[in-house]
Amino acid sequence: MQVNVHDNLAVANSRRERFIRDRADECLARFSPRLHQVSISLSEVGHHRGDNPDVCCRVSASAGSLGDFAVTAESGIVHQAIAESLKSLTRALDRKIGKRRSRRNVKFEMPVEEEVIEMA
């Protein structure tokens, strides 16, 4: 699984990027055989209003035959926006994998033939 980080915040640093990669690896570890690429983008939202801008974290993942996933979370705290978006992605992947498993594991039972007993 390849994790790409795009930090478009006013102050970007390597500690935050390392935190994002570690958190993504931790949250998405059980999906790593299915995930090909994960992109995490951070940007500021509401900076034109004058108050403290919110942070928008957008996570997109390519999961091969499962399709592509994209989730977004906004928060006033960077770490919280990252955690919420990764949590949303794990829920989406769980739902998708659960639906595929339930379709795949359906067992069809053959109807039982009833014996006819004749009374003489």
Give an account of the 3D structure:
- This protein is α+β, with helices and mostly antiparallel strands and about 120 residues long.
- The chain has a single domain (about 1-100), classed as Ribosome hibernation promotion factor-like (Double Stranded RNA Binding Domain), CATH 3.30.160.
- Helix content is about 35%, strand content about 25%.
- The protein is built from two helices and four strands.
- It has a four-stranded mixed β-sheet, with helices on one face.
- β1, α1 and β2 (about 35-45) form a beta-alpha-beta unit.
- The chain is elongated.
- It starts with a strand and ends in a 16-residue tail after the last helix.
- The relative contact order is 0.16.
Short account of what is shown:
With 120 residues, the chain is an alpha+beta fold. It has helices spanning 14-27, 78-104; strands spanning 2-7, 37-45, 54-62, 68-75. The chain has a single domain (2-101), classed as 2-Layer Sandwich (Double Stranded RNA Binding Domain), CATH 3.30.160.
List the helices and strands and how they pair.
Elements: E1 2-7, H1 14-27, E2 37-45, E3 54-62, E4 68-75, H2 78-104
Parallel strand pairs: 1-2
Antiparallel strand pairs: 2-3, 3-4
Helix pairs in contact: 1-2
